[in-house]
Design a protein that fits this description.
Number of domains: 1
Number of helices: 3
Helix content: 10-25%
Largest sheet: 5 strands, antiparallel
Organism: Paenibacillus albus
Distance between the termini: 32 Å
Structural class: alpha+beta
Protein name: CRISPR-associated protein
Length: about 200
């Protein structure tokens, strides 16, 4: 695939977005949209490593895509409380101040509208526009109305901000590629592939 360009992809949301535990990777977001478009059921993805190729360029020395995480701009933050469902009057008999059931009464932090989430990538403009149009919402609890997408703008930009920009990483990058930067950059150790998804 050719015709890669430096792109900025901005999602404008029309409902509050729950702050995710981890940054949203643009390549992961597009892979989800691609499986929807190709009508690949989730159960067929288990153990598969031959998924269709994304319209995003890969880094020359890595198999990773040149795609950043999402950078969020919002009007502010709100706190809400979310209690899991129980039948009848059971919730009134539960002690939510501690113990096992405390975990079922959770505080949720949301970003107040207007919310914009911006990604950067080296991709094919028309393909990126087609795939992003399939994304209805961003963040956790999307099926409950959070993070609904009102509009998407894909524009070509001059600089490549998909990998490293102004000496700062724009996505999760294995530390072995930049061991000399470990003292400068914030880094966390994580497994790129969850243990349950690894081939045995």
């Amino acid at each position: 695939m050719t015709g890669y360009k430096n792109l900025q992809v901005t999602f404008t949301l029309c409902s509050e977005m729950i702050i995710p535990d981890y940054p949203i990777g643009f390549d992961a977001l597009l892979m989800k949209a691609l499986t929807w478009r190709e009508s690949i059921p989730p159960e067929q993805n288990e153990g598969r490593f031959d998924l269709p190729e994304l319209p995003i360029e890969r880094h020359p020395s890595s198999s990773l895509y040149l795609a950043s995480i999402g950078f969020v701009c919002s009007a502010g933050r709100n706190a809400q409380f979310f209690t899991k469902r129980y039948s009848g009057d059971v919730p009134y008999d539960l002690d939510l101040s501690g113990g096992y059931f405390k975990a079922h009464h959770q505080n949720v932090y949301t970003l107040a509208c207007p919310v914009e989430v911006t990604f950067y990538c080296r991709g094919v403009l028309a393909e990126i526009q087609e795939l992003t149009a399939l994304i209805p919402a961003l963040g956790p609890k999307r099926s409950q109305g959070y993070g609904k997408v009102a509009g998407i703008q894909v524009t070509e930009i001059k600089e490549d901000k998909s990998w490293i920009y102004q000496d700062e990483p724009m996505r999760a990058i294995p530390v072995r590629y930049y061991e000399d930067k470990l003292q400068q950059w914030y880094y966390a150790f994580t497994s790129p592939v969850p243990p349950v998804m690894r081939p045995s």
